[in-house]
Specification:
heterodimer; A: 188 residues; alpha/beta; B: 116 residues; 2 domains; 5 helices
Chain lengths: 188, 116
Amino acid sequence: MNQLQISCEKNAFTNVELRLAALGDERTAARFYLSTHSQLSSLYNMLSRLGPHEVTFVQQVRLDDELASAKWDLSRLRLVKLDLEGGELEALQGAQNLLDLPDPPAFLVELNTVARADGRSAVGEVRRMFQVRHFAEFLIEASRFYLRFSLPRLGTLPEDFFENLAVDALFVKPGSTSFQRVQPLFGK
Amino acid sequence: MTDSAKFSPATAPLLEAWLMVMRRVVFRGAPRISSTLVRSLLPDRCITRAARGYFMAIHSTEYVEACALCDCLNRHLSNLIGFLLRDGDFVIDGGANIGQFTLLSASIVGGQSSGV
């Protein structure tokens, strides 16, 4: 977060608002596992295989509450990216209003298949949250030729995630503005 | 954090040459070359211009951060975001880490972007 703040200042990006908080399904103080690899820090202790890590406490917030208090213009919200190292399900459970918007944004979600405390991954439940709301789901794959402007292929999500550690999925609601924008990518 | 203006004179052209390649094409093995090059050219904690044009504060010894600088690990996601967003859009980036996609989004939307 500190690095991101420095980057924003260096770029003079005044359009970025940073919130130091964990996303979840309730407002509380939460245990946060800090990995030596910063990108793997998480609310979930999936890190024991990655070596030493520290534990700290952070403020956990619901995305719906944050959006309500900030009073942002949600009609212009086009993308929600969630890469929470296993915490995606709880973050979405705290963002039900966002999912039910008449013109919902696209959700770019890392589906993390690592088993959590109960021994199961949350991938199935994350997908169900979108399926009951009739979102279309796509697996985001790199193009074979990885050129600068080459667009990703939107494929079908596999039923069996066992072999994968994490995959990037895109959920968009048919008829939404975001859906219309990514429509040219279908079938590529 | 060491600003790119304070790097040794040889660093800037070498890094810029590599980023120029990365701006055009990413190939198999590019992430490994990028991480090695960035680690050997830059001090551990530094701010420098990334392949996408904006400045990034990185730890050059971190593989993922070096790759984020060169935009060579998740280029397909960067391209998707670039394709999806327009000027004036609003974005939420949950789990932004060092902000590769936050900075990219902020540079595209111009108006409002958010990292949580």
